[in-house]
Each structure stands twice: as structure tokens, then as C-alpha cells.
Amino acid sequence: MKEQIECPHCRMVFSNETAFSRWVRQQKDLDSNRDGIVLCDSDMIVHRYKFDHDRLYQCIMLVELKRHGAELTDSQRDTLAVFGQFLRNDKKTSCKNRRAQAENRPSRVFSVMSNKVVRCRAFGAHLLTLENTTPDNGWVRWDKADITKGQLIKLLRFELHPETLRPMDGRSHHYKTSRLFD
Fold first, then answer.
1. Are residues 46 and 10 part of one domain?
2. Does residue 94 share a domain with residue 34?
3. Count of domains in the chain?
4. In a shared domain, residues 102 and 173
5. Cα angle value 88/92/95 (rounded, 5°)
6. 72: CB partners within 8 A, 6+ apart
7. To 10 degrees, the CA torsion angle through 167, 88, 61, 66?
8. 10 and 63 share a domain?
9. Rounded Cα–Cα distance for residues 143 and 160 (Å)
């Protein structure tokens, strides 16, 4: 479905679809219903590469954004769940259960910016649903849980755990590096 956006100045509504997206939709050989092919755009990859001036510890997640209270289609929900398993390496602890994830996900990755191997916690894929177009003009939901605008900001800063919504301490100097990933 094409996303519609409204100009804040003139209130004119128009399609936010790119020329490439329109081209893909018109290709008969890419029929999702007939062939089971899902082509999804990626709304937002959130990557925090620095905590307390240290780039040795990083966090990353994918966020799918739905505006105007829209729901995921069945194929989008399935694709997001599958992709989220590949993009999750967070460990189970006594205060949180681990969500499904692909086996043997790396927690150490090479950072081009740092030019060295760093530890990166990957928190999978999450659904952000807005009542309207921004957190300022309606309710906000994170994975179907009602949250505040302040909580959303903390989630995007990785100050709240994206799955438990509990406070998260990303400062690597508080623990031995290995404890963050155990």
C-alpha cells in the first residue's frame, strides 16, 4: 500500500512512494500473492556507536514504522519476525527471557569507523506505531505496548532495553566487557 503524506503548509495529500517502489509494484514477475515474494523497505536502523566517549561497545536494532495506527500485514509481520531473529544476539538473563534468534549470532563485529573489532549488542526488529505522523500528535506504541515520547527517545538512545522497556546501562566501564554479552 502506498503511503500518503500531508504537506504541513498547504494540507495537500500526496504519495510518498519513490519511483523505484512504484516500478517494483508494477512488475508482474514480482507478484507477492502468486509467488510469495515480499519486498519491504527498511524504515530505520538505529545504531548507537558511542557510549561515554567509547566506541568499543555498540548497539543496533531495526525499527519498522507504521503511521496513522496502521497494522502490519501478515507477510510484513512474518518478514519482520524472521529478519529480527537474524538481527538479535542479546542473551537471556535472570530478569528477561530471550526472544527467538538465529543460532550463533556474532557479538563482535568489525567497525569501519573505529577500524577495529568492537562488541555490538543486536536487539532485533521492533514495531513503532504512531496514532498520526509523529509522537507529538498522538499516541505511541512500541511492539504494541503504549509508551510515552520520553520512553521512545530513551529506546532510540538504548537507555531502555528494546524488549523489556527496563533501564539499560550501556556504559562499558561499569562491567567487565564480557559481562555485557553473557
1. no
2. no
3. 2
4. yes
5. 125
6. 64, 66, 80, 127
7. -100
8. no
9. 14
Q: pTM of the prediction?
A: 0.78
Does the pLDDT at position 46 exceed 90? Answer: yes
Q: How far is CA 10 from the centre of its chain?
A: 32
CA separation for the pair 171, 37 (Å, rounded): 41
Residues 57 and 95 in one domain: yes
Concatenated DSSP letters of 63-122: EEEE-TTPPPPHHHHHHHHHHHHHTB-PPPBTTBPPPP--TT--SEEEETTTTEEEEEEE
pLDDT value at 181 more than 50: no
User: Which triple of cell numbers denotes residue 37?
Assistant: 515474494
Last residue of a domain, one of 24, 39, 54: 39
Say which residue the cell 538505529 belongs to: 46
Q: What whole-number distance in Å separates Cα of residue 59 and Cα of residue 124?
A: 10
pLDDT greater at residue 30 or residue 140: 140
Do 114 and 33 lie in one domain? The reply is: no
What are 133-179's pLDDT values in tens digits?
899 999 999 999 999 999 999 999 999 999 999 998 655 444 444 34
Same domain? For 5 and 63 the reply is no
Alpha-carbon span 151 to 87, nearest angstrom: 22
Q: What domain range is 20 assigned to?
A: 1-39
Per-residue pLDDT of 86-105, as tens digits, reads 888 876 655 555 566 656 67
Q: Does 123 lie in the same domain as 35? A: no
